User: What shape does this take?
Amino acid sequence: GFTFCGFFYGDVEATFDNTVLMVKSIGEGEFFRFYEYSLAHASTYWPAGYDILLYVFFAVWNLPAILLHLFTGFNYLESPLALLWCKGLGGVFAVAMGWAVYQMAGLLEAAKEKRWQAVFLLLSSLSLTAPVFVAGQYDTLPLFFMLLGLYFYLKDGKKGRKGFYLCFCISIPLKVYGLFLLLPLILLKEKRVWAILIKTIGCCLPY
Assistant: This one.
């Protein structure tokens, strides 16, 4: 709790600001020029640099603060509570990652105790807690969809395949490294070159 509240990474402030600017750009008819709009109106030193999908997630998460700002002039950049709320999105997806690991362990027929051990090992890892709960980084968003995609991959079947591709269609625009898991998984089940290309490119199209 102390490290979450006591350490502040400047990128959280910039992402919050650019999320608000994305919403404003929609209202002003500038959505398709969002990055130029951010460059001209950013209140921090960092205009928008992430893919638009990340800002959509943050817009949903920060909707109360955004509405307060739009209708009352609420200064979200000077509100510790609003900034901590923004930072918390990564933690929510970290917990969601734990859920995905638990579900995958269930598909592998692991005992209930072993499933919880897998979740504990994930959520107690310093490689997760330091970047997410201290620095407030956002990699848990694409990682959750990668894990969920892996869950659907293990589940197999028609619904499993659809879920697998959908999850990577979301993960790759958030962080492109999802492609490095997608391609080997496709190659394990697909040997036709044209099908491999279509499925890989299809998942990359939202990017």
Summary: Residues 141 and 206 are 16 Å apart (CA to CA). The first helix runs from residue 2 to 6. The chain has twelve helices and no strands. The chain has a mean pLDDT of 91.
